[in-house]
Amino acid sequence: MDFKYTQEFAESMDSSDKLAAFRDRFHFPKHNNQNKIYFTGNSLGLQPIEAKEAIQQELDDWSKFGVDGHFEAKNPWFSYHEDFKPLLAKMVGANAEEVTPMGGLTANLHFLMVSFYAPKGKKTKILCEAKAFPSDQYALESQVKFHSLNPEENIIELSPREGEYHLREEDILSKIEEHKDEIAMIMIGGVNYYTGQLMPMKNIAALAQEKNIIVGYDLAHAIGNVELKLHEWGVDFAAWCSYKYLNSGPGSVAGIYVHEKHGDNKDLNRFAGWWGTKPDDRFLMRKGFEADFGADGWQLSNAPVLAMAVHKKALEIHLEAGMDRLIEKQTKLTSYLEFILESVAKENNGLSFEVITPKERGCQLSMHMKGSGKELFNKMTEKGVVADWREPNVIRIAPVPLYNSYTDVYQFGKIISESFQELK
What is the set of domains in the chain, with CATH numbers? Predict the structure, then answer.
């Protein structure tokens, strides 16, 4: 497509956008009584307008039924999580029994790694990407220490080649091949939070299976952003949050996936809780944990219904838009952003940056600034742009196809130019 750096072109793209109406189903922060240019859905998605109604339904049922709401509410709380299973299954390419909403992302990774990181003999090491999100790094380090092992010796980090910013697929696969007899588990972010690189999850999982290595993914930046086929790829486990591209609210309930081949494996270690038992057994209050089948068997506690009310509504909106249509728009919208950034750099002598996000990506682009990037970022923020700064010198921008427009992207380009000129 031949892009143009004009408002008319951006508006014409918006007029033919089949997903444009979804923008009106979200609340935007304001700047001078206008919508801010909100490009940080990779950190916290916008609030669905229907969120308040969804929470109010549960508040009304709480006031009306009290504890009896567990069975008499419009959406009974006892089985509340079960309504999410077909929705989440579509989001991650899984069977319904392989997924469940629960807990928080890092806690869920710990619960899953209790089951799936089992160092034994020579196979004691974890393979991950360097510069993973810090919480993942801390989780991996502490899991290794939990087994009385040394993280320095038992965590293999994948780093880009010198002078490059993202990993090459051949380097990832060759590292797995090199250490195949030592790796007990691979745990990688599906989309790297810093560079925005989409990892070759399918091919990593295929090689891991061939080498008898457990593979798990942190999908915080992937779910709702890129196509996922976890069951088909044979991924062993995965976890995600719901407050980024799934727009379910700050700190909202997370979720997990466990492949069905592990769904009834009684030999797996796990940290158990009462909501992980079979539904008919939960109120028997007896000793002796017996796990429910599939991902539900990893649950610990009953559903946080008020948070999950928003999560369910947000998932319904996302699936109504359709992942195929979202990815189609995402590809165009992010490509247009890349074009706009190139145009802005050409018209502003001295404005220097490098887009370090590869073509294998979701909707995030990361700008590595040359020089004083923080001042430019602050100036853009003053003008109504909501983006994200990451040390040492990166601005992350995520035009989300569900609610961002081509006009947002065009205006972002103009604001970069204005801000740079004001700082000269």
Answer: 7-35+322-423 (3.90.1150.10), 54-321 (3.40.640.10)
